Predict the structure of Nuclease-like protein.
Amino acid sequence: MQQYGIWIVTGVLAVALLIGAWYLYRYLLYRSGKLGKQKVSAALKKFGVIRNFKVVDDLNLSYNGRAAHIDHMLIGFFGILFVSTVNDTAEYYGDAKSEGWTQVTAKTRKKMPNLMQENLHNIDVVREIFSKNDIYNIQMEGVTVFCGSVKKSLIGITGAQGLMTFKKFKAYLGKAKFDKDNDVDVPGLYGLIMKYKV
């Protein structure tokens, strides 16, 4: 009887340690900024795999002296979706055309890049690559996904389109435009883009 008690206590402690380790792992991912990127990547892959779309994460490109860093790229028959990810729970202020935005938390106030302008730059670099290879009329758009706590975050970016919470992003992928077939050669575009990866 006493032996069963030891086994039960040992089992409970093991489960408690596993749960604690899981929460610590999630917390460290969140603090490093990787949790939001993992969530967005998983949503894109879940959406893309059944449609034979390609998902590329954390991509660095270089072409003609211009560099681009892309958090996520979804290449599908509709065209290409560029996704920037913001992980922190904070208040964000700025406007669509400003050089940078301001991020305010309980402890800090700091400048950050304007991710809308970054997406436009990335689209422009990819468009140049396509143009050099005689590929035209590919639909491309960029969005920024805020993955922090919805209840504690405020997105105060004026004049901006394509800014959304993670929950809205998942719903956004359900729009009909992503099911439209614009006769895009998905493997061909993927292969071409990867030639410029650094």
User: Anything to note?
Assistant: Residues 1-32 form one domain.
